[in-house]
Amino acid sequence: MDLRALGESFIAWLEGLGIPHGWVLLINWILGALIILGIALLLALALIWLERKLAGRIQDRLGPNRVGPFGLIQPIADALKLLTKEDITPANADRITYNLAPIIAVFHVLMLFVVIPFADKVVGANINVGILYLMAFGSLGTMGMLMAGWASRNKYALLGGFRVVAQLMSYEIPIALVMMIPVLLVGSMNLNEIARGQGSLLGLGWNVWIMPAAFILYLVAALAEGERAPFDLLEAESEIVAGYNIEYSAMKFAWFYLAFFLNTWILSAIATTLFLGGWQGPFVDKMPALGVVYFFAKTLFMFFVFAWIRATFPRLRIDQMMAFCWKVLVPMALTLLLGAAIIVKLGTQLSLPTGTVPILMLVMNVVVLLATLSLLGRYTRTLRARQNKRLFTPELPRL
Amino acid sequence: MLTQQYGLIGVFALIAFLFPIVTLGFTWLIRPKRPNPIKQSTYECGIETVGDAWVQFRAQYYLFALIFVVFDLEAIFLFPFAVAFNKIGWFALFEAILFVLMLFVGLIYAWKKDALEWQ
Known about the structure:
The complex is a heterodimer.
Chain A: H1 3-16, H2 21-58, H3 74-83, H4 95-112, H5 130-151, H6 155-186, H7 191-196, H8 207-210, H9 212-225, H10 237-240, H11 250-275, H12 290-312, H13 318-349, H14 356-392
Chain B: H1 2-30, H2 59-83, H3 85-88, H4 90-112
């Protein structure tokens, strides 16, 4: 069964009914858009349940277990509750910006769904600037949160808004640089092409084996982009209560909540597409619909990793977090990019035998990763030595 | 072909923007509306807020924003280069190295100027 063929036969059927071509296209677009919207909303409900259940299990709790079997209906109950709750707008808030912020938050995250390839060519819009599109709409989320933080006219919310700007903007740089490496390798920004380029050798062609350092870098930066622990300073409960969404209630809060979960899912989906082979898997050539299964399995695995990290790690301090981005991740990403550019160019210009470029890439990645880790280790050791010295040399009382 | 793909994005953008608005309108119809001054006051642990929230902010955030603009613009410029990389030959490589080295120098400058320190 081919999902693409299903869509094309549907178009053919519509045209057979004698509807003009323009209308058929429009019907097609609206249907496609509604399908993507439905997928996104269903996913949000499923992911909220999954994350709560996982976090519960990891922290030795039960998680939601009252509403429905295994608490499966809990997210629907929550959504219904939030729908009927009173919506409070603080008297001091900037009303227009305050009301627009959750709308923008949802809008940006839904827009990201359009270019994610669920299977070969099963994608809302198969555009050739996919990654640029992701970058552009991804940064719109920062805008929504900053608007929320500023418009609430609340000190906690404003602090949260500042942290949004500092954190999300800073971590966008390593993400952008590292997303460029698969683009370099494939020579296309089309996400479907990038997934297709990783098909060789039963999963050995996945970018994660070729560029492990880039993958790890993406994972760390994605944790920060997704506002997840250990980088969830912009909604640190113990410091600024809830950050930018503190004054929001009812459905407006629900929109921020939904955007947060879908954003994590999108980051997992990007990781899957760029590094884990996207919809690639065994027998996907014969049955393209299997790609959907592989894609969702890998993306849910990535989501599980994100949830796992969130449930396990404590929070960083803001100066540590910013220093880690600018002094570790950005130089590392630039080095990886330079190395990848040199290797790819050597591969094409000297026409090296196939297989050399991936191996060289792997060696370069491992070297960069080890160098970064050893530098970080040395830095922590000197830091610790300095602290210990301070601890064990008490000042003598002056006589 | 291309207009077809972007057509879907356009339609979807409209739906994705209208959907939250329509839902908020729907909840406006069914939710209770009983505001009072206490409910609408700024949330701050039950104590009345002192002063305005819109105050001067740390210059540090501004510095990070400045560095961000530089780096993000350069990253965006690098994307088209990455796509056309295999078609340009050795020239592309030297150009890329020059560009990335300039980024590196900028980063080191910001680092030495203590723009990356959280004071």
